[in-house]
Amino acid sequence: MSVIDSSKMEALGEGLLVGQNALLDSELLGSARNYKKLVASRYRLMTEGDIKHLEGSQLQASLKLDGQLHFLAKVGDECFLFNIKGRVVQGLPLLEQAQAALADTDQVLIAGELYYAQSEGRPRVYDVTSALGSNSEGKSQGLAFAAFDILEHNDSSCRALDFTEKQKKLNELLPGEGQCHVVQNHEVETTDLGQLFKKWVTDGGEEGLVCVDTDNHTVYKIKPKHNVDVVILGYTEHPDMVDSVRVLLVGLMRPDNSFQVFAKVGGGFSDEERREFFNTLKDTAVPSSFNITDRNHTLFTMVRPEIVIEMAFHDLIYENTAGKPEMKPVLNYDAIEGYSTLLPEAFVSVLGPVFKRIRDDKEVNATDLRLTQLQDFVDLDNLNNSARSLDLANSEVLSREVFTKTTKGLVSVRKFISWKTNKETLDSSYPAYAFCYVDYSPGRKDPLKRVLRIAPTREAIDDVFEKFKASEIKRGWAPVQ
Question: CB–CB of 81/70 below 8 Å?
């Protein structure tokens, strides 16, 4: 029996088949998601300057390819790629190579990087998205898969194997070159790692290095810092330094001049710069219906978007360990009303943000602060999109019932309401159906209690409604007409 839902597989030309949520094997998908959560997301991120702090004498180093985490699976006669969202890819030349290499293997699950092996320049993550799209125009033929870990082989789990044992098994299963290959590791002395970084990354233009310390089982991703121009949207005060900022809230701009919240920058400042920013920003505070805190739970003071700075960051994350997009606030600014909230957009979380300098040569406009500054670093297709208003489709009340009971002259109220949001197709963060139970008892210490539930279908929310009513409405309660 196939583990792929063929009804969801779409032919996109040149033999390419792509199916969203097409993986039927929940155990296989669960293994991939656990790997992303427990292994891949725990790599230690470093810059070139951190190399000197590495301990140990020898490392296994390989190129960091700029692609997408995918899993190569063979189940019976089926050989395919999938990601943690359950998207399945078939029909690629690289899978023909994998099928041939794994001919004697009944079942295998391998983690690796799906990347575009272009002839000039280094791979870019957005090339993968383009190659798997409906307008790929044969570009999918240039996709390659670099295997770097093995999770399962036949009936055995490989997770307890050490790095050397896993590499040996991978090299037994797949070739060292071609469109489906094992990542090539190079043994390097720690003292020589800086020179290798310079050769491959600084001078060679590659994305970075992945280094494995086989003694302590630690994996390092070593990448250069990237710079971007942003505008200051708000600040928090430093609790231990008088009249000084602790963190800046910064943003970018969408084509319609709305502000995309980007990062909270708390590093890279001298003490003098912290005081100068405070003195400059304290008189530019504006009203805001949008509120957010720094990591110390201090509320940001929102300010006029006037100052452009350059910041550096180490990496960007555009999805969580479950494969869901990072939803970030989008703001509208009015000179009188201040900031108001628009619909959140799928965006990124920033790793290692630091302040570099003020950019007096840049202006607050959708060109100097454009989102596409991030194009080379993140796989998002909405960087050129305008913001969307929060005025989504109106909700539709499905059921509403209210009951009262009088005890010793005090009236208690219990209300049940369910509704269809009509927003789930516009914003995936909204549920399709919702239910609310309100219990007001004036004689109680906490008189007001609320319970919220959500559901994907009308039948499910109706069931929630009836079960709550049956549980909470007994003798003595009278319906309100």
Answer: yes
